[in-house]
Amino acid sequence: MLQSQLFTKTRKEAPKDEVTTNAQLLIRAGFVHKEMAGSYSYLPLGRRVLLQIESIVRDEMDRIGGQEVRMATLQPSEPWKQTGAWDKVDVIFKINSRTEKEYTIGQSAEEIVTPIAQEYVRSYKDLPVAVYQIGQKYRDELRAKSGIMRGREFSMKDMYSFHETQEDFDRFYAIAKEAYLKVYKRCGLVAKVTEASGGSFTEKLSYEFMVLTGAGEDDILYCDACSYCVNAEITKQQEADACTRCNKGTLARAKASEVGNIFDLGIKYPKDFGFTYKNKEGEDAYPIMGCFGIGITRLMGVIAEALSDDGGLVWPESVAPYRVHLISLATDDLEVSSTANLLYDALLDLGVDVLYDERKGVSAGEKFNDSDLIGIPLRVIVSKKTLAEGKFEIKHRASGESEWVSREDLLARFV
RNA sequence: CGGGGCGUGGUGUAACGGCUAACAUGUCUGGUUUGGGACCAGAUGACUCCGGGUUCGAAUCCCGGCGCCCCGACCA
Question: What ipTM, to 2 d.p.?
């Protein structure tokens, strides 16, 4: 991608209303555009990051047997009335058609997926099964906040599984938990599995996946010796208490952001819809159901919060909009620009995603600052200086370290 | 939803109730320049959020909306 043709431009200052790091940086760098409180448009760079995160999530869900679907976002009110959510859940948007019919736009899909599963799951032989989707969700939040981290419209991966027995559900629950941890790790984050309330879904505990960041809106207590972690709102334990699980460590308190949540839904939804299957004994039985969510856009916000520095965004390679930011200084110099052009083509031939800053009349300082702000992991500089050395300069965004390498060595890294 | 703050060119700011709403940045022209937002000249761009009111006169004061941000509550 030629930067001179990129749809967006950077800006020096963030809109004064934005105080959170993710909103300031993502807007300044041109990744997102705010439409209204809690509703953002994702521009080319932001969209690319979302695609990267989605592909990681998709990969991990596929690995544990999830099958991707795309359920309707515009939904009838009937199933929501059938489960009682229409009146009980206050964040659902309700809309009326011209003919006074009632609809909702999806904020979650239990009411949609359960009747679909009912159509196809007739026998124990059809179980277990897990389907997921990645897409926009809508919640009528009273207060959207923190940039893209809590919106009225956001992107979420939601998976739903159905099982014959509690044991089988527990097995899958554990597998899904591991898959979730891999997702966060691949996104460059450390997430803690946190015991939390099951909300209005279930009496049981649910597990939240929490990333430690000051921008988070949850308080958690976690053990400094084992993996125990609990949402502060459901426990009487306090900071500095001894850990009740390992009896060795002590509990620390921290702000964290919830980037995923998994629930044991039991048989609530199958029961609401009269969804049974024939078990081995030929009897009707309700399947055990689970739901598993990952906030895609929130994850992007948390990465922006947790991994940025004073210069701007610092994307891990796995989710970066481009892998290489090629910067040509002295664009009027024929030798410099042709060397840079050739390197750009060579990288593209190797299948490397490159943002190429070949803008004319833009000072070196401005290009460097823009590059810092956009946060692509690897910067390759072509200038009179590098030409004199017969090498290219590589600078790593995260560490700030730079190295000088030959063209062969540079290209060899991407083979 | 309760409380607080803020609404002025695209962005960030300024302007005592009083002159043609100022400055920076951006954008456009031309020139110069190319290792950390460089420089020169010119140009462009605002119904001062909306609606009322007070006043000879309102960006400025008053009332009512709307919007945005923050705290709290909420959080399928």
Answer: 0.95
